[in-house]
Amino acid sequence: MARILIVDDDTALREGMAExxxxxxxxxxxxxxxxxxxxxxxxxxxxxxxxxxxxPGIDGIEVLRRLRALPAPPPVAVLTAVPTAGNTIxxxxxxxxxxxxxxxxxDDLAGLIARMLPAPGPAAVPATEAGEDELVGSSxxxxxxxxxxxxxxxxxxxxxxxxxxxxxxxxxxxxxxxxGRRGGKAFxxxxxxxxxxxxxxxxxxxxxxxxxTGAIADRAGSFRExxxxxxxxxxxxxxxxxxxxxxxxxxxxxxxxxxxxxPVPVDVRILAATHRDLRAMVTRGGFREDLFYRIGVVPVHLxxxxxxxSDILPLAExxxxxxxxxxxxxxxAAARLLAHxxxxxVRELRxxxxxxxxxxxxxxxxxxxxxxxxxxxxxxxxxxxxDWLAGDLPGAVARLETEMIRRALAGCGGNRAExxxxxxxxxxxxxxxxxxxxxxxxxxxxxxxxxPDVAPPxxxxxxx
Length: 464
Description:
- The chain has helices at 11-23, 34-43, 60-67, 85-93, 106-116, 140-152, 169-179, 197-205, 222-225, 241-253, 278-284, 289-295, 309-323, 331-339, 345-359, 378-381, 393-411, 416-423, 427-437, and strands spanning 3-7, 27-31, 48-52, 76-80, 98-101, 159-163, 187-191, 230-234, 255-256, 264-265, 269-274, 298-302, 328-329, 364-365.
- It folds into four domains: 3-116, Rossmann fold, CATH 3.40.50; 140-302, P-loop containing nucleotide triphosphate hydrolases (Rossmann fold, 3-Layer(aba) Sandwich), CATH 3.40.50.300; 310-382, Helicase, Ruva Protein, domain 3, CATH 1.10.8; 391-464, Orthogonal Bundle (Arc Repressor Mutant, subunit A), CATH 1.10.10.
- It is elongated.
- The protein contains 19 helices and 14 strands.
């Protein structure tokens, strides 16, 4: 039972709503105007507010505005006989859960109240505080990345960061820079895929005044802008071969040649990143082999988010905290996030949390606030999103392990040793799980496609 405050100067309408609310099993409280409503709210104990807009004295918009100043304001729905674009937008901007036109039927009122009350069940997942550039995550793959950052921070070694689009490669690059001895100097990021090939040379190496049409002044270029610090070359796999040759020369000589200028020495640490398979590009002739070995002295791989399930909720809370508003995830919302395959990785998760934080009407986000995720990318995960958490716990774990093993083997061409390394388990344990789940592997080590011969077991099991 909830205590619901009805604020309306129409006595008949207010008493009619109070009767309906009482029939629905809740405790109605009435206020005839804005001043009476604010006085009652100051006493506390109100769970939901149904607020009229047009009232004598303090109108509904002003009541809503003052409600926002309370430490923990109850959810408010605005009910008005004269809905307009202006009062609708203003009410929603001030945090109203909904804006409805009178009269409101019994079923609509019941549904509105149900949406405004917290869902029964486990307590909401609390948000955590984290800095904007913090590497969030404690999964085994993320822990390895964090350890690598610690080992590489004070080194001058060139690092190649690999991973799917959206996994956070620039965040890792910034962490390497920030924690190293160059942390107090410049960090310059260049997206090689976003700059046309004809302009990339000038962007990186600079140019002299008059070097070409439009060069009306000297330009230092990214290498000299990062002098003493770190230059991050994002999506280096999209750089054309001619530019690769010039970059290789700079990396070897530590001298840049501005377009139309003279050589200039630079002291820069190079970090590079790509979502492409550079080794395969070398084989096809799309990437210089000598540059590949020059930039890939130390590789750091970022696993996709679907292989880091334990990082999803901490990341979601991190992005919610950055969005502001002290919003939290309900248990049902957390389950929805865990069920989604996240083809866009961390970037997709960040955008989803920002979208929910802006549009969700309540402080505790429900599964309904993430309805836009339903079905997106489910087919690519191999298992419908709604089925991931169905049944008992052993069955859910079996489905998860089956899918992760299938993806790991397919991702490395069926190489079981490499798959075990990616999964961070012993090879013998991988063999055991493959037998347990009926996964058959093609004898070929390229492009293996794996499907379970039988449904994953759902009975009680031991999971090493």
